[in-house]
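I can't quite decide. Please look over this sequence plus structure tokens:

:::
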Amino acid sequence: MKNIFLLMIFSIFAFNVSAQEDTEEPLKGKNGQLILPESGEIGLGVNMIPFFNWFGNAFNANTNNQFASGNKFFTTFGNQVLMGKYMLSNKTAVRVNFGFNLMSMENRTYVQDDASNDPLDMVIDSWKFDGGTYTLALGYEMRRGKGRIQGYYGADVIFNYQNNANTYSYGNGHSATNMIPTSTNYGTNLDGNMRVLDNSGNSTFGFGLRGFVGVEYFVAPKLSMGCEFGWGFMINSTFESTISSEYYEASTGDVMIQNSNVAGNTLFNAGVDNLNGAVFMMFYF
């Protein structure tokens, strides 16, 4: 009988607490707009670090103000970061962060034309680089707070992929009378009459887990500024790649192609990013 009585008291208390949370008056602005995000709403965010860099450059003679570039969205995601959330309830959300950097470059250099006796005659060597870095983070977030200041915490699963390709072309060709043609060394360590044509397939795949904690301050209805810190680990594996080089084989009179393999590697790192946390602006609708 005593146990039944205690169970009834506990049930009434739990019901009262639940009813109080359900009937809690939502926070509103001066014109009656709801300030905090609600269940079913979507949040879109932008990284504020590029803006801070631009703002700093505006006051220092346009010196490259990169103090904030250690931001975790720079080191993990790159400069271009899209942040998204979906509110499962008023206090929980799933989130996704996507970062990407793409780069394509061609470097052209004039070198002496070996087939001409005129020192002013030139041919062109070129180096072309194509690369990209892509990172996706999927996470679950829980929130606390009743006013404009909202604390949150949770965890992310992070996937990272990076690839780059280097291709080279040369204006002077190999021949029996020019077995070591004049060529530009684009950091490829020219060795005798051998020169690199292609260094591609350098691909890295990464996986990581990261716990985070942050604070959002709602400066206006559905508009917040926030900062975030975290701890996590990342494993990056670089796959084996192939370097293709050409050289002149005097015994056969042919230009030969040699392929050599470069072994892959694995990198593990872990630690806090408290000094490299994210600073962002988030919109909910």
Q: What stands out?
A: The first helix runs from residue 2 to 22.
